[in-house]
Amino acid sequence: ERAAAVAAPVTPGALADGTEVPLLANLGSPDGAAEAVELGAEGVGLFRTEFLFLSADAAPDVATQREAYRRMLEAFPGKKVVVRALDAGADKPLPFLTEEEENPALGRRGLRALLAHEQILRDQLTALAEAEAETEADVWVMAPMVSTVAETEQFVALAREHGLRTAGVMVEVPSSALVAEPILRHADFASIGTNDLTQYTMAADRLLGSVADLQDPWHPAVLRLVGEVGSAGAATDSPVGVCGEAAADPLLALVLVGLGATSLSMAPAALADVRLELGRHTAETARAAAQAARAAGDAAGARGAAQQVVREAA
Ligand code: PEP
Ligand code: MG
Is 92 in the pocket of ligand 1 (CB under 6 A)? Predict the structure, then answer.
């Protein structure tokens, strides 16, 4: 089975009318890189770097990080690889970075923690720039949990100072979705993290089972925010990816494209189904499905409305 998958040429992600939608992989360590390539990943849309830091007493040094980044980048010559700076907070405590907080989801996490411990961010950017220089990959770097334009400016300036050419932000907080256009005048790209964006939009802890029914990226409130970012991307001519779990749901993937996402990143196992579904529909259908879903009153209504548009278009 594995051998057949390797031999079969995988066509790039595209809609039925030829609109390209690169389909990328979410990776949590370099170990999954080869399998992602086998499963047709056209690059990496989210490389989570937490694996290097978790369970460490001190931040890993530049050489250790460079080696790990190089190992992953080598699997993607000539391909785009989006690396996310360390995303830690009081929910994933690191002795050298975090402090105890009563409400970790709303605390000093993601980029906020990195800007408070700038040397950790500087070391990570140094390691990444050095690893990029040793490989053929096209490295994009992005910051997690950005909520303001000022944070965006600080991060992008630091990335450029370290020689990284393409610097962007994750949109996972409603505030950054709502000011996506000013943000994209400073950042080269945005990547929407629908897991956290849903958590913060719905005010529902993504890890709490008792509110799991609210943690649904189909909710029109979430879709409207995604649409804001999509429009800002179009207005500023900037790429807008989605790298949250929502991108792995084939019908929702189509809706996200209709809302303006220009690439989708997901667990590699989901790539084939999403590729198949996108290939069945035109950009016009994607936009109509997105419009219908956006106008619904709840998540179930949004899904039903998108299903109906797709069914009628077939
Ligand atoms: C997200 O929040 O959607 C995301 C991709 O980041 P993580 O799941 O690592 O928080
Ligand atoms: Mg997140």
Answer: no
Q: Identify the three-state secondary structure at position 40.
A: coil
H runs (alpha helix) in the chain: 2-7, 33-38, 62-73, 111-116, 118-133, 149-161, 174-178, 180-184, 194-202, 220-236, 250-258, 271-278, 283-294, 299-313
- Ligand 1 lined by 171 (C-beta under 6 Å): no
Q: What is the pLDDT of residue 9?
A: 63
The pLDDT score that the predictor gives to residue 56 is 85
The parts of the chain modelled with pLDDT lower than 70 are: 1-9
Q: How far is CA 20 from the centre of its chain?
A: 18
Distance 311 CA to ligand 1 centre (A): 31
Any ligand 1 atom below 6 A from CB of 194: yes
- Give the per-residue pLDDT at 301: 98
Question: Which DSSP string corresponds to 97-112?
Answer: T----S-GGGSS-THH
User: CB within 5 A of ion ligand 2: which residues?
Assistant: 172, 193, 196
Beta-carbon contacts of residue 18 (< 8 Å; ≥ 6 apart): none
Distance between CA 169 and CA 147 in Å, rounded?
9
Beta bridge partners of 169: 143, 190
Report residue 238: phi and psi, to 5°. -115, 145
| Per-residue pLDDT tens digits for 160-191 | 999 999 999 999 999 999 999 999 999 999 99
**What's the one-letter identity of residue 62?**
V
- What pLDDT was estimated at residue 1? 44
Specify the pTM: 0.96
Nearest CA to ligand 1 atom 9: 48
What pLDDT does residue 159 have? 98
pLDDT of residue 199: 97
- Name residue 126's amino acid: T
